[in-house]
Amino acid sequence: MPLRLKSILMEHDLRQTDMCEAVQQFNGRPLSKAAAGLLANWGTWPKQTPRHSIVEQTVAWLIRQGVPPAKAAMAFEIDDEQAERGSPVIGAPHRTTEVPEEKDPTHIEPEMLTAQAKRAFSLFRDPFIDDVQGPDDLYLSADQRYVREAMFQAARQGGWLMAVVGESGSGKSTLRRETIDRINREALPVTVIQPKAIDKTQLNARHICEAILYDLQPNCKPKRSLEALSRQVEKGLAESGRAGYTHVLIIEEAHDLSIQTLKYLKRFWELEDGYRRLLSIVLIGQPELRNKLDERRYPDARELIRRCEVVELLPLDSNLGEYLTLKFKRIGREVSELLDQDAIDAMRERLRIVGHGTHRGESISTCYPLVVNNLMTRCLNVAARMGATSVNADIVQGA
After folding, report:
1. What Rg, from alpha-carbon coordinates, does the chain have?
2. I need a labelling partner for 376 at 20 to 30 A (CA). Which of 82, 261, 317, 359 fits?
3. Residue 115 CA from chain centroid, whole number
4. What pTM does this model have?
5. Domain ranges within the chain, ordered by starting residue
6. Class of the CATH-defined domain 115-131+316-398
7. Domain 142-312 has CATH 3.40.50.300
8. What is the C-alpha to C-alpha distance for residues 88 and 378, in angstroms, rounded to an integer?
């Protein structure tokens, strides 16, 4: 079924190609013309890029082009009039299947390290499976150390409001686990609150209140009205604070939060007992979270956005050799016995893409831990099948 987006583009004389450039996919590339045509004409959504991301970017772009906000907000509703008229499509044939995403040349399908590779390189276990069992297993670059310490200080002190942004596989969840493990190791009086809602798009103020109350007073029954529940939460935090505890609210997959929920978070952050703030908030999410914390896109959320420190997990790049050295050292092997020096340089090159949209022409690194793990595993498997004694640059480029 056609969407109102189609008629809005026509009515305001807007080009579909310009819209595509403004809508970024999960891999940093713009939405393809075919995907945009299928979406506008048939309501067929791309398979991997989250719907909410497409909606938010498109609506923001329409408003920038002069479309009234109320009309822009209706762009993804079914256009019953066009459906009845059977109006011509824009840019794509009729299809009912999901849109295949453009292949990312840096995408490496995960695979297991084969028994053949383990025998060939004397690896008695996979260096990338269950590889972080304690603090000594965690590789930290200077950038990651800063993020880890910021999360830890947010937990120890009240009043922090920060967002940790990173691509999938960049190590966000690992740093969250490290923060909680460190709190437990040092037996610190810190209450970590983690809402367990699976679908973060549905997380609202009541869910957050209930999560806080459950971790503070698990046997306490939440009040029915939001007003009474809010007072119950504030009282619980104040009493816990006076007993010497600090509190940190950690929300993963925060890129899925609605703008309204983000605005509510400022109210939680403002809870205080005298001069002391009662709650720190740490948001953890993918790059879409950075977009949601852009005041130009969401000026109505500026009160929170202006107070939120955004820290980003960067690619390994120059730290790639050190990262691999640690991973293999933890299983008793030297990386130099498995990889030629040119292989590490080739991996950095293999994991670079050319940016699109606002990053058009830029060389962008995707050298994140999970991607590196997948590529390294594949290279070892390929080398073993070829009978090579080590991984060289040619194997990396062909894997």
Report:
1. 24
2. 359
3. 33
4. 0.72
5. 4-85, 115-131+316-398, 142-312
6. mainly alpha
7. yes
8. 46
